[in-house]
Amino acid sequence: MQLKLFLLVALFAATTTVAAASFDCKLAKTDVEQAICRNKELSDLDSHLATIYNELLALVKDGEPIRKSQRSWVSETEYASNSRVSCKHEKARIEECLVSAYRDRIKSYSILFESLKSVGRQNPASQYELKNVSSKFDFMVRTNHPCEANGSQDYSSCEGSGVVQVFRKGSDVPLQTIAMENIFLSFSRTNIPLVNSARLYDYQGVINVGDFNFDGEEDFAIQNGNNGAYSGPSYDVYLFSKKSGFFKYNQGMSDLIAGTLGFFQVDYKNKHLMTSAKSGCCYHESTVYDVVNDNLIPFSRAINDSATDVRYEYYYEEKWANGKWKRVKTERSRQEGYCENEFEDAARSLGHYHGSESRVCNLLPYASKQGIVALHYPSNGKDSEASAKGIDVFLVSLSSGDILGFYSEPNEFKSDHLEQLQVDTAAYLVRPNLRAFGVRSSFRPTKGGNLKNYSVMTLFIHKGVQLVPVLSQMVVYMREESIETVRTFDIGKSSSNGYADIVVHETTRQLISMANDIRAVSSRHFTLRFDGMKYVVPNEFLLN
């Protein structure tokens, strides 16, 4: 007995039309196929889906995005949410799962089919006329669901099925209508979707326009969701065809966005597309592509790898040659904060060392084979956010492992959560032949309030067997709601009591979006003077 089963065999063969194939149950191999073969309701649902799928393809100019989506939904190797393949793990209730998956798919296609048929005859749930996106084309985005900005938030978003119509400037007749199973729209406080926005880790434009293949014609991409790497944006990319006068879906560029960190950058000068990718926190790739006949050809890439070796960060440059990457440059540098064995041994000798990540080391660039170790620890011996934090700082000789200078304060900080610890070895020449170094501690307050993050800096000098703080816990960074304050140091030309004055540069910014756009900037400068024991810091520069 044969059942009509929507396997899209013809589609996989890359034909231009796809029909529901006849399936011989004697050839059923997978759990999904066998479940459909033994269940009449599933067979009927499969036939219904095949019918509406082909009717949907007949209404669109370029059906490749729909075909691609359906391939993924049917595939036994690709996983998509609410797809057939997602049911293969439901051994005990596979037929129930498949019935639900088919009904959801049919409902989605039915809504999309009706929206295409009704274009121009009835109002959609929401529609947006976008006339400031392109110099040659206008766009109309129509959704099958209510979709509007949330005026109480800086940014909001919504998504669902719909259609995108493309018009030539000045024309009321659509050049092309594109059916979308999902359109993702982002809004600012105004009820206008973002467009031409592709900043990394930020809300994206529903339509991004550019000359992606460098043929002198404008192309565009439609955001179809956040299905990219690390839940980044995903797009359907369309390239204008001079031959046909229409836009054609480009799978290679669409897949490129989905597989990397957001929308590619367009280098018009060198005619390259550029992407960023990563693996975890510590491996990053930047890849450059040529575009030849609308196809992507790798050109070069740069790799920053600090995951392979805890001691060193590696930087590589590679060129694409003869179908593979050829490495042309290798650099190695010590990883910031890495503690050499000599540092580790010295830290253990202090008694507060417990192997946690709340320590950091740095080599002194102006002292041969000497380095600084800074170590945070809970004052009461219990590593919790409720406990105050102590700090040990010491100067170590890498040659002998000896501790040359030491500072310890068990109640240095209050009970806030330590986010980051850094040793600053900038050229703080406070006296002739005497340099200070800084220890910067960044915290997240454990109690509520407007203060979100802050960092404090202490400057030390080496005096005998001690490390002496000459500037204590000055706030150098502070984030309160949308207000950000940054303070940096310079060594001044004047001096007080034999120590160079320190000039503080303060910049305050108001941030107006998740992308940290700047609405207003103010700046001012202050001078800190040495009173014979330490630099006098105004109370407003200290954490209350």
Give a short synopsis of this structure.
The protein is α+β, with helices and mostly antiparallel strands. The protein has helices at 9-12, 31-37, 40-59, 64-74, 94-117, 251-258, 341-349, and strands spanning 2-5, 21-24, 126-130, 137-143, 156-168, 176-187, 207-210, 219-225, 234-240, 247-249, 265-267, 272-278, 283-292, 295-305, 312-321, 324-334, 359-363, 370-378, 389-397, 403-413, 417-431, 434-444, 451-463, 466-480, 483-496, 499-511, 518-528.
Description of the molecule:
By secondary structure, the chain is of the alpha+beta class. The protein folds into 3 domains: 2-117, no CATH class; 126-263, no CATH class; 341-541, no CATH class. Helix content is 15%, strand content 45%. It contains 7 helices and 27 strands. A 7-stranded antiparallel sheet has the order 21-22-23-24-25-26-27, with no helix packed on it. Strands 11-12-13-14-15-16 form a 6-stranded antiparallel sheet. Helix 3 runs parallel beside helix 5 (94-117). The radius of gyration is 31 Å and the shape is elongated. Residues 1-22 and 513-517 have low confidence and may be disordered.
Give unreliable regions as ranges.
1-22, 513-517
Distance between the ends: 81 Å
Q: What Rg is obtained from the alpha carbons, in whole angstroms? A: 31 Å
Q: Could you say how many structural domains there are in total?
A: 3
The biggest beta sheet is recorded as: 7 strands, antiparallel
So how many helices?
A: 7
**Percent strand:** 35-45%
Principal-axes shape call: elongated
Overall pLDDT: 83
Number of strands: 27
The helix fraction, in percent, is: 10-25%
Structural class: alpha+beta
Q: How are the strands of the biggest sheet laid out side by side? A: 21-22-23-24-25-26-27
